[in-house]
Amino acid sequence: MTGATEFIGMLPDIPRFYTALAEWLACLILVLVLNRKWKGWKFVLVSVGFLAVQTIFMEVTDGFEGILWNFVMVAAFALMFLYLSLCTGAPPVDALYCTTAAFMVAEFAASAEWQLYCFLRNALDWTGVPAAVAVLILIYGLIFAVFFRVCRSEFTGEPEPLGVTVREAIVALMIVLAAFALSNLSFVFPTAPFTGRDSIEIFNIRTMADLGGAAILYAFHMQRKDNQTRQELRNVQNILNAQYMQYQQSRQAIDIINYKYHDLKHHILALRSETDGKKRGEYLDRMEEEIKNYEAQFKTGNKVLDTLLGSKSIYCIQHHIDFTAVVDGSLFGFMDVMDICSIFGNALDNAIEYEKKLKDEEKRMIHLSAFSRKNFLIIRFENYYEGNLDLKAGLPETTKEDRDMHGYGLKSLKYTVHKYKGEVDISTQEGWFSLKILIPI
Questions:
Q1: Are 8 and 200 in contact (CB under 8 A)?
Q2: Nearest-CA neighbor of 237 among 1, 419, 389, 400?
């Protein structure tokens, strides 16, 4: 950004192209680390086009100074926002949040580079285009390399969208506005308090204010991510507790069902000992067959799994879902009860929820298998699936309207699996949804 020339006796204005280049590089880095909407030549053409538009805009507005220059920077900010929105397809709130970071870093890079170049030029008599280009590449390369490293560590692997709230975006924008106002106060109001009187003071204030703004914005981002992580952990813990409570309730219910089952078997045996007609016998046969549906049939070698699978099996019967399971429960002795409930409860709930939506009851099928191979515990959940699978951060995107309160079931499962150094793989093939878990024994 440039200011009023009369207040800069020793240091000339920053070249407009330097400002445009800094804004373009900051946006480009964010686009590269986020999920790009376009790739290949289309992305290259759009990016080069943005650099050209940004440069032309800066050159055309040469001569706008003081308050007018602030309106120019608002327009430049809008162009950066447009570029990020087009290339990432991010929601407006996320794009605004990213634009604040790009703008703040670009302002600092342009100011710091030009001030250092002018210092070296005066101190070492570095003049000419080669010296200017060398300093530009060195300083921009260093600043944007650090920015790229920070962005890659903070944004790579993030779910899309980033989950930025309107309040968070507004706070980030206010930080940028405050830093920008402070850094340019000397240009607009040179006689006001806290402003510089000569060019060196003005540039010192500007560079330090921009650096401070970037630092505050980064601190706010870290606080935001920390709060977001804490909220996700609370939601995951609530899921874990809910699954464990569900297991306890299922155990009590199945115990009651088993008592009734055994009592009814004795009643049936007593009735069969009586001399009855053919219809009585057929009726008793049907009664016995129906009762079998409510027996906890699973004998996996793990009481927790027997209870869980028995409960899910009864629920599947009630909703006309064909549920089969081949599980070696003895392999789960090293797992905590709540972790077993989390893995099997969340995966089966997810499969059951989808199967219930199928109108054709003959297609409602779920198959579960758990076995060991080469010192690995392998758990595979499979259910009939129609349509396309949309994955976000390796997990299916929730189809429920309240996205903030749903989608944590499989996150909880993934969190639990990672606790045991395991991995989760999700895929679809030939009409089947497959969730495969691999855990080292």
A1: no
A2: 419
- Positive/negative CA dihedral, 88, 92, 94, 97: positive
Q: Percentages helix, strand, coil for the chain, rounded to the nearest 5? A: 65, 10, 25
Q: How far apart are CA 404 and CA 346, in angstroms?
A: 17
Gap between the Cα atoms of 398 and 395, Å rounded: 9
Cross-strand partners of 436: 380, 425
Burial, 159: exposed, middle or buried (Cβ in 10 Å; 0-12, 13-18, 19+)? middle
**Nearest-angstrom CA–CA distance, 339 and 410:** 13
What span, in angstroms and rounded, lies between the C-alpha atoms of 173 and 178?
9
376, two tokens: 């690995």
Both structure tokens of 21? 């280049």
Amino acid 273 reads S
List the pLDDT tens digit at each of the 441 positions of the chain.
Answer: 443 333 334 556 788 899 999 999 999 999 988 877 777 888 899 999 999 999 999 888 877 776 777 788 889 999 999 999 888 878 889 899 999 999 999 999 998 898 888 888 777 776 777 888 888 999 999 999 999 998 888 776 444 557 788 898 899 999 988 888 877 665 555 555 545 455 566 677 778 888 988 899 899 888 888 877 776 666 666 666 666 666 665 565 566 566 556 666 666 665 666 666 665 666 666 666 655 555 546 778 888 888 788 878 878 887 888 989 999 999 998 888 878 888 888 889 889 988 998 888 888 999 999 999 988 999 999 999 887 666 555 455 555 444 443 456 677 788 889 889 999 998 888 888 999 999 998
Nearest-angstrom CA–CA distance, 58 and 194 = 28
Dist CA 318 CA 322 (whole Å): 10
Kindly give the interhelix angle for 16-33 and 40-60, rounded to the nearest 10 degrees: 150
Taking the whole predicted model, whether its pTM rises above 0.85 is answered as no
User: How buried is 82 (Cβ within 10 angstroms: 0-12 exposed, 13-18 middle, 19+ buried)?
Assistant: middle
Lookup: tokens for 117 = 């170049």
The first and second tokens of residue 149, run together, are 């490293």
User: What does the DSSP 8-state code read for residue 401?
Assistant: S
Contact 48, 38 (CB under 8 A): no
SS3 418: helix
* Longest alpha-carbon distance in the chain: 119
Cα torsion angle, 430, 432, 435, 441, sign: negative
